[in-house]
Every structure is written in C-alpha cells, then in structure tokens.
Amino acid sequence: MRRCRRFVILSLAVAAAVASVGASAHAVLLDSTPKAHGALPAGHTQVVLKYNSKIDQARSRLVLVAPDHSETTLAITADGDKPNELDSTADLKPGNYTLHWQALALDGHLTRGDLPFTVTAAP
Amino acid sequence: MALLVDLFAYLSVILHGLVIVAQSMMLGGLLFLCFLLHPLSSLLPDGGALEQRVLRLTRWSAAGLFLAELAATALQVTALMSTVGLPFSNVMQASFALSGSAKIACALVIALCLNRRTLARPVARTALLLVGFLTLVAATMTTHAFARMDHNALLLVVAGLHQFGAAIWIGGIPSFVLVLRHLHDGQGLAQVGSRFSRMSMLGVACILASGVIMCVFYIGDAQGFYGTAYGVMVSAKIAMFLALLVLGLGNFTVTERLRQGRDAPVLRMRRFAEVEIGIGFTIFFAAASLTSVPPAIDLTSDRVTLHEIAVRNAPAWPRFHSPDHDALAISQLQVQLDREAAHMQMAAPAATVPGSGEPPPRNAQDIAWSEYNHHWAGVFVVLIGLLALLNRAGVGWARHWPLLFLLLAGFLLVRSDPEVWPLGQENWWAAWRDVEVTQHRLFVLLIILFGVFEWSVRTGRLRSERAALVFPLLVAVGGAMLLTHNHQIANVKDQLLVELTHTPLALAGVAAGWSRWLELRLPGRGGRIAGYVWPACFLLIGLILLWYREA
Predict the structure, then answer these.
(1) Model-level pTM?
(2) In a domain, A8, yes or no
(3) Which domain covers residue A91, as residue numbers?
(4) How many domains does chain A have?
(5) Per-residue pLDDT for A21 more than 70?
(6) Which residues in chain A touch residue B99, judged by CB atoms under 8 angstroms apart?
(7) Which of A21, A54, A76, A84 to mutate to test the interface with B (most CBs of B within 10 A)?
(8) Is residue B487's pLDDT more than 70?
(9) Nearest C-alpha of chain A: how many angstroms from B190?
(10) CB burial class (10 A; 0-12, 13-18, 19+) of residue B117?
(11) What pLDDT, on the 0 to 100 scale, is given for residue B341?
(12) Contact B142 A108 (CB under 8 A)
C-alpha cells in the first residue's frame, strides 16, 4: 500500500514535470535592416531589429556570422526612445551573412532567431 | 546555444506552471483564511482545528511558491548568463530577476509568519494581505502586459485582476475542499459554502472582465482566435473555464439548499470541487504555456484562414498503409550525405543532430507516415472506448481493455520518431536531447503507466482505492500535456493546423480523466453518468485521430 502510494506520487511528479511545453517565439521580429534573405551593398551598415514588445537591450545579443563562418558579437546601442529595437552597426564585405539574435523581452522571455542576408559589392 | 535556449524554454514553462499553481494556492488560502475561515471559526465546531489545517496548507503553498520561483528565476538567470555572457550581478538587475526575487521574499514571509497568532491580530493580518498584494504586483511584471508597447498601465491592472480572480476562486478551492472534508455540521457547511460562493463569484467576475479586455487587446478579431497558436490556446482556456462554471453552478445549488436548511448532496459538492481543482490547474499550465507565445494581435502574417481549416479537415478515408522508411526525407537526406561523403572520401555527417534546434526535413512521405501513426492510434483508442463501454454494460472479458494501451505505447515508441532507433540511425540516448522526442517518450511512459495501473485495478491485482485513481489522474495529465505540446514544424501555418486538431484531443483527454475520477469518487447517479461519459470521450478522441490530416 505504502509502496503503491509512493509510486503514484512519483508517477504524478514525472507527469507534472512534463505537463507543459512551449518553446515558441515570444518577441516577434516585426521589421529589420537588413531584411531576412535580403541584399545590401558592402560598407559600414546600420543594423536595426524591431520587435513587437519592449526589449531589455543591455541583456540581449547580436552575433554576426561572416561568410568565412567567423563570429562577431555586435555592440548594441541602448536607446530608451526605441525600447522595442536592437540597433547596432557593422562593416560588411560581399558574401552571405547570418545574424543570430537573442532578445530578452522586458517580461523575462528569451527568444532567439536567425536573419540570413547577402552583401553585394558596393556600386 | 540553441539547445540551451530550447531546453530553457521547455523547463521554464513547466516551472512557470508550478509557480502559478503555488502562487494561486498561497493567495487563495490567505484570502480564504482572512475573509472566510477566521471570521467564521468561532461559529464552527472545531473551528480552530479547521483554521490550523488551512494555515498549514497555505504555508506549504507559500513554501512551494518559494521553491518554484527560486528554480524558475535561477533557470532564467543561468540561461541568460551563459548565452549572453553577463555577470550574475548584472543579470540580477533584469526586471524578471527583480520581480522573481520579490516573489521569493514574499513567499518566504508568508511561509514563516502565517500562523494563528498573526491571523488573529488585525494589523498583522493586514500586513500579510499586503505581502500577498505585493506578490500579485510582482507576478504581473512577468506577464505580456509589462513588455507591451502601448496601454501598459491598463494591461498591467487587467493582468493583476486576472491573477487575483484565479487566486480567490481556483486557488481557494483546495482550502474549501479541506474544510468540506473535516466539517460535518449542516449549519457550518451552509455558512462556509455560501461565503465561498460569494468569493468565487467575485473571482469569476474578475476573470471574466479581465479576460474580455485581454481578448480585445491581445487577440483583436475572430481570426486571431482560430488562426493563431495564442488564440487557439485561449479558446481552450475558455472551454475549460466554462466547464468550471458548470461545476461551480452545481456547487452553488448545493450551498443554496444548505442555506435554506434543506437536504443537499454535500459529497457531490466536494467531488465537484476536486474536479474543479484539476481543471483549474490544467488552465494554469495552459496559461504558463500561453506566456511563451506572442499575442495573436502581433501576428499579422502566417495566420490560418477558415478555408485552410476546412480544406485540411475535408473527410478522407484513414490511411492504413505506411510509406517505406527509405522514402522519408531524413532517410533520403542521409543517403545523399553518405554519397557525397564517399565521393570526397570522408566520414558522412548525420542528417539530423538532436537538440540542434533545427526542425527535421519533411516531405509528402513524412506526412503520410505521421497520418498513418495517428490513424492507427485512433483505431486503438476507439477499441478502448468501445470495450470500456461493453465492460460498463457488464461484459466481463472486456475488462482487459487497458492492455490495448500497452500495444499503443509500443506502436508509438517505434514509429513516433522515425529518425531515431530502432527505425532510424539516431542513437536512443542521444535523441533525448531532442525536446520533441523527449516529449513523445514521456507520453509513451504515461500511456504504459495508466494502462498497467488500470488493468491491475480492473483484474483485482491492485485493490487500493488510491491505485484506481492513477488512471484518471494520468489521463487528465496526459490531456494537459497534449494541450501544451508543440510540434517542430518549420512552417508556422502547418504547425498551427496540427495544433488545431490536438487541442480538442487534449480537452477530451482532460474531460475523460476527470469524469472517470467522478465515477470512482461519486456514488449514485452522478457517478454512473460519469461512467458513460469517459468512454464516450475516448471514442471521440479515437474518431478525431482517425480524422487527422497533416496536408
């Protein structure tokens, strides 16, 4: 009887521990410069990611993956007037890039995403 | 990093669900004590002992909140420190860490300071209520409202009202059930019942008013309800809320009869309240899952239309012929990688890396594979429902129906994830890193557990009353799991169309579990009716599975 009760409690604990899953995005990327799968000319470029909710800019991250697969963490400009944006700058050469972003919404939810884009030779 | 963030999201929803349960029970218990039991305790037989029991429950709830919130905050802090590379002192200044710390402190104060002495002193009682209020304020800081771009103040008040309503009603029910269990005096039951009815009505009013406002601001229009994951989850919450209202109405009629001094089915009220706790906690886990998806109003593209839902659900004959494993996208990709590697004379990489965060590739044969799985699962579940009904009608041999669950579990274990052993190349242990594979395996474990328990109970191998309750509890928990289970499908629309089928399955699972609970716990006509309801729910689940389409 006692063993059975312990087993019931254990089963319920296991079941409760898996009772919920949901790894979907919370902060939604509404707009960006560069656009996803878009193209832009080489040179010093402004990077802007605009979300649906306020973002903790100091605790979010932008990592630029260059065509040679090297990774650079971009410095995010804190701007209280644009609380839903992650802004930065980068010097880009022609090739295929991916911007890995991780945003901490002000309500504590972490969201990550990738932004692939192409840099063309400057005209 | 991808695996860490995915695992973080997985665990954080679980912990958030536990936080909501503990928080609601703590606040509900506190309000129950301050506004119901303490004022009535001198009028009730053994009022002091009853108060002591509810005090203990509330203190345990506060301890639970302390631990759950500590774990949730620690997990978030760890995830942030390791992915962004910030020091602990910096991360602890993030708003979620501040509100988490505030909730931990409040829970600790209530766990340590709530006792008969503090409850008896008006100043101390008010201070405890203030600590409860601070908990609620801190909790609203981790809701969608805090991060919204517009209408922050209004939405924060509304979120607070919603949580207050849930606490005073659903969070108060465990205290109510505890009192019902130990109070046998008719007049006392009438007093407690009618006062708790009034508190519940206040809770329902708060939930209803705040819920309507949140629907306006977070969902916006009808398509937001059926066309987005957020809307579908809110619809499921509304369905369960309506079920709670029906049960609450049943209990209200009992308290009214008691108040008028007439005979009333008090045991039914207790059993209904137990079911209310179960459904209420399921709603809390749905709410925890809801906080991890963006509000419907923010999703302007990738919404599902009614036409797409109608096309997807057009009647078609179930698929009982499986495609060949070699025709699946993952197998074909592996063949291609092997060929390329052989050409370059190097080791071939695996077509899929568990836990990489990348959804596996899919083609038409993968869809046929998944539909075949669902349709055969539907056959199993229809048979289970039919045999359970036959058994209910007195056919003796049909009592072995739970063994079908073991066959179903074996079938799912082999076929759910074709990229994993025994059919695929992926190692059994390495596949645990994949969140979806882990969920499937835990579902299988759950099915085995409730199959074994129910068969042992029905064949007399287990005679304990508690053992009989394992089946309904695990079925209800399985329904809750399914409600918040998501599929890793790259196409957002396809993913939602799958969720649209799984949500009614989950609700039928929750209904099946709790009606079987009532059959076991409620003697008389109510229990007999419930005895026919749950096999009918299983039949419904089976039919929905047979109807299931992924394209």
Answers:
(1) 0.86
(2) no
(3) 24-120
(4) 1
(5) no
(6) 108
(7) A21
(8) no
(9) 34
(10) exposed
(11) 86
(12) yes
